[in-house]
Amino acid sequence: MNKKQKRQLKKIIISLVLLIVMVVIHKLVIDKLELGNVLSRVILTAMYLVPYLIIGGKVLAKAGRNILNGQVFDENFLMSLATIGAFILGEYTEAAAVMLFYQVGELFENIAVNKSRTAVTALVGLRPDYANIEQDGELVKVDPSDVTVGSEIIILPGEKVPVDGVVVEGESFVNTAALTGESVPRGVKVGDTVLSGCINEGGKLTLKTTKNFEESTVAKILDMVENASSRKSRSESFITRFAKYYTPLVVVAALIVAFIPPIILHQSFAKWIGRALIFLVISCPCALVISVPLGFFGGIGAASKLGILVKGSNYLEAMAEADTVVFDKTGTLTEGVFKVNEVVCKGDCSSDELLMLAAYAECYSNHPIAKSIESAYVEVGNTIDKDKIEDVKEISGKGVSVSLDGATIFAGNKKLMRDMGISFDENNDTSGTVVYVARDKEYLGYIVISDVIKQDASSAISKLHSEGIKNTVMLTGDRAKTAQAVAGELGIKTVYSELLPGDKLCKLEEIIASKGKSKKRGKVAFVGDGINDAPALTRADIGIAMGALGQDAAIEAADIVLMDDNINKLATVRNIGGKTLAIVRQNIVFALGVKFLVMILGLFGIANMWLAVFADVGVAVIAILNSMRMLKYRE
Amino acid sequence: MKKRFDMEDLDCANCAAKMEEAIKKIEGVIDANVSFMAQKLTIEAEEADFDKIMKQVVKAVKKVDSDCEVVL
Fold this sequence. Notes:
- The complex is a heterodimer.
- By secondary structure, chain A is of the alpha+beta class.
- Chain A contains 20 helices and 22 strands.
- In chain A, the strands form five sheets. In chain A, strands 10-22-21-20-11-18-19 form a seven-stranded mixed beta sheet, sandwiched between helices.
- In chain A, helix 2 (37-68) runs parallel beside helix 4.
- Chain B is of the alpha+beta class.
- Chain B is built from two helices and four strands; from the N terminus they run E-H-E-E-H-E.
- In chain B, strand 2 (29-35) and strand 3 form a beta hairpin.
- The relative contact order of chain B is 0.30.
- Classes of the chains: A alpha+beta, B alpha+beta.
């Protein structure tokens, strides 16, 4: 609790004690004395005005000021009107109590909101307070925003890295938990990039800064989280729009209840005005308006703790409403690293020899497939003697040929084999790229290279399906067979293969278009690794970038950012979105339901002021507590 | 020009919505957002008249809730 809240709490306690004292005096003393009607009214009003003014003085003052500013439907004004009305009708206890509970509710709201604010900005625990700079042989602490690009900063063990930089001296472990939710420390040495927000868990490090503070990872993340609540969800816009009409409508209803029935039914005004006051007490929509953004705020906060940055409430909401997730294969479902999977001999050689010949043939090529063959050969302790190779020819789109020990080695795809007139048996069954190898005209065998599927990809896809995602789609430039094999293994439902980079965006647009134009259509999420897919990330209803830590372009383009490349977090963010939306909907239905019920009961004289206070404050407290559940979210 | 300001003592969510609406109506304001949770005002307005616009913004905020301050 801050100072202001403590002061308010004190006032509430004093006012409550006084109220109880007044009630006791009222019942035990005043009621026993047979005072005249007028005299007892004056005394009681004076008595109850004490606790009333202590707690409500400020509300009255604010109501006065705001009414001068033309704010008729201001909650302070409505509460003042309701309680003053109660005083006039002789319901003294109720009048003071309504004001008291109204303030209790406000205080509670205030504490709850502040609490979730600090919980979310616990991320601001990320915010580095200082940077160490060496001046004349001594360490000086300076404001991180005063550190210029290219200067050297020192990070002592246990300290936070304030600005992005490259290690120029020292070796250590850094913990990226605050950024990624991943708690395994990462080793860094001279030449490695270290991002701000990491914690140095090992020895002293000297960094040369590569960015200024505002451009550094931490500042950007903080900025994003702080900005997230300004992108409003549909539920929030709905509730604010609703609130705009709700209050005036309820006030008009109160006026009607106060004056029409007594005239028509020839009943006393006091009775119906009393009922109308109940309307005024529940006319304030504030709690309802708070509980919606509070729920989303909590959801966004819960996600950020797990290394998932959600850039706006609207994206969290859309994620809950998504029914299709589109994956760009490379880098999201697969590691994005090619590896030799199979070496198959078909001719007169061993598989080691086949790999060696292929490695020699490919060693001058920069193609990722060539590199993977070379590294498969080198990894097991072999070396390539490049002097033995002559006459290297790269045949674009087909493969390579080289001379080695007097023989010509061919390595490439089936087109190369056909062009060279080499008879070979075509292999179509494998789930990767096939490189055929031949010596002179003699076919030796083939090597299968494939991009490694992420270990947890298949469980992540099935989790998404069980979280209610109806369709999963994979976009890839791979051959149809390879793509089908990967999709089958992962349980992905739809595959579009042999796509050129530009086609991926078109396919995504087709998928989105197929959903129709209704606002309530299922949303389409696109998952990419942030490399070359910025347009798709932007185009999708929800663009999700994976493994984006340190990749500014991806962070910029995406709506939801997974800082590490843990694909399981897709299901997590879907789950958080769903829970948040469920909580928000519960609040809306519950709060409106209770308010309407009390209004109807009030109209028939069944509900009293006490019930009205509950409908206002009690409901607010319950809705806020419900929203705050999101802060406690665990995977 | 887009700028962000902290807000102090913005105590009610409904007021934040009212302020946002009032600020959007000020001439020269392209877009505005009052975030109750972040206690922040984000405003996009014509650069030339920015200071003048901000004066009107403060007035509009005060009109909804006289206790609320925009930290300029």
